[in-house]
Amino acid sequence: MLISSIMASSCVRLCQDVVCAKREYLMKMACIILDLMQLKGSHESQLEHLGYPQTTSTMPFVAGISFSSLVPGSSIQVELLSPEDEKYTHTFNEKIVDDLTTSFKNILAAFKEKPAQIAVSLPIYFTETEQDAVYSAARAAGVVINQKMDHGQTILRSLVKEDYPAQNELVIDIGPAGAAARLVSTEVDESIRMSDVAKEIIVSKVDTDPSTLIAQLVEPALASLKAIPTVSGDDLKRIIVIDSLPNVVPFLVDILQTKFTGSSAEVLVKSKIALAAASIALYYYRDSIAPKYVFNVAPLRVGIAKSDGYVLTLLPRGQTLPNTKSAVLTTSKDNQTKVTVKIVVGASRKVSANTVIAELVLDGLAPRPKGVPHIRINLNVEQMGKTLIVVEDVVENGPSIVTKTVELKDITGDTMTPDDVEVMAKTLDTLEDSDKAEEAEARWVGEEVQGDLPE
């Protein structure tokens, strides 16, 4: 009996000790949680004080990121928009440090959640090396860029509000690290913008004298337009000045407005590049979440007609959409100053058995030995088939020299019917044709380019 009492008493004390230990443990954990909550609140207050965004955890948002220079200390502008709250907008700046990857990591850390879409806009005057540096740094930081544009493309796309006939427009991009002027012939039909670059001028060193800038950028573009009119004629309809240099641009605009007083040309100033980029990201996000009633794929192969009579495949038949593809080709003759890029669709690898959906001619190429020029063809197909094709003559470590752009309502072109697609899908190559097509592709294995283009 005595032993039983002692055991019972020991068990009670043991239970009390366990309860006390558990209570002490829970109280310590509660203190830790409270400390973390206070630290989190303090951290958020500091972020908000620095101008970083404070979005709710349930509200998706998109981001537009704009650069003006890669010089350490220069500013990267970030704009946030929300698809669920049209009034929500937030702007903050991040400084470029020596390591560009760190700048992107700082931007990513400022977001409470990963943006649903990110659009990045770079100056027109950035070289291909500078563009690659930005995109490589973003990848290294874990930033996924959904739309890549230059400031000229960003602004022109943001101005697509209503349809208008073909007209000449001059986009001037002036920043701390360079300046550029891009003369384009552009039109908007059923909210689809089509444009051709007629002249592009790059200045690596910016002169702060507005008159000098006009002599460097505007006068050569106007002279080119008068000497070689575009399909829109030789009149300039609109001048768009991208304001990345506030101490210079206002004076430049004053001179331009005086110069073009009484003419049909209007002068616009656009400074909110990050906002325009964010608006484009918002458009693509809303399109991505819109109800899709079909699983869209490319019904035919999309390719480029080479000078040897065979097709270089850009997008294989059955490839899921949306999709983006790119290829680099070259000239087929020495001193070739023009190339014709035919985008074709079909099932056959012979050009003659395909349908041409777009034909873009690049004129004014610098005479060079065959195989030296690099002609880059970019294909961007949206979920429902809307297609953007950009063809550009690029110089290694430099900007594009000549550019042509076209937009199509559908990946099979604007004239093919479903019956046409069905018939063409059945037009298959013979074994002999397949062997010849493979031999034609094998000739370019190991080369920097994937084929050559006719005049």
List the helices and strands and how they pair.
Blueprint: H1 2-49, E1 62-66, E2 75-81, E3 89-95, H2 100-110, E4 118-122, H3 128-141, E5 147-150, H4 151-158, E6 164-175, E7 178-189, E8 192-203, H5 210-227, E9 236-243, H6 249-259, E10 266-270, H7 273-289, E11 301-305, E12 311-315, E13 323-331, E14 339-346, E15 355-362, E16 374-381, E17 387-394, E18 400-408, H8 418-425, H9 431-442, E19 452-453
Parallel strand pairs: 1-4, 4-5, 6-9, 9-10, 13-19
Antiparallel strand pairs: 1-2, 2-3, 6-7, 7-8, 11-12, 11-14, 13-16, 14-15, 16-17, 17-18
Arithmetic mean pLDDT: 82
Strand content: 25-35%
- Gross morphology is globular
Largest sheet: 5 strands, mixed
Count of individual helical segments: 9
Order of helices and strands: HEEEHEHEHEEEHEHEHEEEEEEEEHHE
Q: Can you count the beta strands?
A: 19
Give Rg in angstroms: 29 Å
Strand order of the largest sheet: 3-2-1-4-5
The low-pLDDT segments are: 1-20, 33-57
What is the CA–CA distance across the termini? 111 Å
Structural class: alpha/beta
Helix coverage percent of residues? 25-40%
Outline of the structure:
With 455 residues, the protein is of the alpha/beta class. 32% of the residues lie in helices and 31% in strands.
Structure description:
By secondary structure, the chain is of the alpha/beta class. A hairpin with a 5-residue loop joins strand 16 and strand 17 (387-394). Helix 4 (151-158) packs across helix 7. It has helices spanning 2-49, 100-110, 128-141, 151-158, 210-227, 249-259, 273-289, 418-425, 431-442, and strands spanning 62-66, 75-81, 89-95, 118-122, 147-150, 164-175, 178-189, 192-203, 236-243, 266-270, 301-305, 311-315, 323-331, 339-346, 355-362, 374-381, 387-394, 400-408, 452-453. It has 9 helices and 19 strands. The relative contact order is 0.10.
